[in-house]
């Protein structure tokens, strides 16, 4: 019997101060093209039914500094520093 591993979506691990990768549909191109950018989470908003998992993030773009509010499911990755073995 195969082992099923339940992996939580990346946006559930994102919190204030994290650097995240945002992927969204680009309104400037065809629907098949995806646009992505990197930003720092400056605020996380919980949902009305369950306030613990974030449903919206305010993210400051690393390149431009523009602050945008994004849906949590647009977070495709959380960038974390590698642990060093000393």
Please describe what this structure looks like.
The mean pLDDT is 79. The termini are far apart. Strands 4-3-2-1-5 form a five-stranded antiparallel beta sheet, with no helix packed on it. It contains no helices and five strands. The protein has one domain. A hairpin with a 5-residue loop joins strand 3 and strand 4 (67-71). It is 0% helix and 44% strand. It has strands at residues 19-25, 34-46, 54-61, 67-71, 75-79. It has 86 residues and is mainly β.
* Broad structural category: mainly beta
Strand content: 35-45%
Rg (CA only): 15 Å
Number of domains: 1
The side-by-side strand order for the widest beta sheet comes to 4-3-2-1-5
Unreliable sequence segments? none
Helical residue percent band = under 10%
Question: SSE layout and pairings?
Answer:
Layout: E1 19-25, E2 34-46, E3 54-61, E4 67-71, E5 75-79
Antiparallel strand pairs: 1-2, 1-5, 2-3, 3-4
Short description:
The protein is mostly beta strands and 86 residues long. The chain has strands spanning 19-25, 34-46, 54-61, 67-71, 75-79.
Quick tags:
86 residues; five-stranded antiparallel β-sheet; single chain
């Amino acid at each position: 019997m195969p082992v099923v591993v339940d992996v939580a979506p990346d946006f559930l691990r994102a919190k204030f101060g994290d650097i995240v990768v945002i992927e969204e549909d680009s309104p400037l191109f065809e629907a098949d093209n995806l646009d992505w950018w990197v930003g720092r989470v400056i605020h996380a908003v919980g949902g009305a039914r369950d306030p613990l998992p974030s449903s919206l993030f305010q993210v400051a773009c690393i390149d431009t500094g523009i602050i945008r509010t994004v849906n949590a499911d647009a977070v495709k990755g959380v960038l974390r520093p590698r642990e060093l073995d000393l």
